[in-house]
Amino acid sequence: MRVYVLNGPNLGRLGTRQPEVYGATTYADLVELCERTGRDLGLEVVVRQTDAEHELLGWLHEAADEGAAVVLNPAAWSHYSIAVRDACAMLRGPLVEVHISNIHAREPFRHHSVVSAVATGVICGLGVDGYRLALHHLATRRP
Ligand code: DQA
């Protein structure tokens, strides 16, 4: 089974970006973690990151066309992008929304994600381990 692990803006800077909030794991480490987890679980994991909204929309369309599962950290777009939400609503496979930090314990503007209502489930506040847990869920979930 193919799983797209898609990451929104500024997540390419993990490791140096506010380590007190997002931890010391670099983006390269995160890619490694997802690929290794995928191999262990027998998933074909494709990991991508972009700072360009149209690029993420294209990847979501690709996943929708394939009926693939998606793990998505929409980053700041979570809080206001109706375009990202609409693209997520077109997915035919399961969608797990992941946030590294606990968005509910942060600034009020982060408390709401416009994506969550169209996600299968949401993991937040568990650091980059959330990605591993999301992949584990997708590998073992019953339809
Ligand atoms: C984030 C939380 C968002 O509020 C923020 O804009 C991000 C990362 C997280 O993973 O905790 O860029 O999605």
What does this structure look like?
By secondary structure, the chain is of the alpha/beta class. It contains five helices and five strands, in the order βααβαβαββα. It has a five-stranded parallel beta sheet with strand order 2-1-3-4-5, sandwiched between helices. Strand 3, helix 4 and strand 4 form a beta-alpha-beta unit. It is globular and about 35 Å long. The structure holds 1,3,4-trihydroxy-5-OXO-cyclohexanecarboxylic acid.
Q: Any descriptors?
A:
5-stranded parallel beta sheet, 143 residues, 5 helices, globular, 3-dehydroquinate dehydratase activity, binds 1,3,4-trihydroxy-5-OXO-cyclohexanecarboxylic acid, alpha/beta
Assign the structural class, choosing from mainly alpha, mainly beta, alpha/beta, alpha+beta, or little secondary structure. alpha/beta
Strand order of the largest sheet: 2-1-3-4-5
Q: Percent helix among the residues? A: 25-40%
- Major beta-sheet overview: 5 strands, parallel
Please write the string of helix (H) and strand (E) elements: EHHEHEHEEH
Shape: globular
Q: Count up the helices.
A: 5
Count of individual beta strands: 5
What hetero molecules are in the model?
1,3,4-trihydroxy-5-OXO-cyclohexanecarboxylic acid
Distance between the termini: 13 Å
Let me know the average pLDDT: 97
Low-confidence stretches: none
As an assembly, this protein is single chain
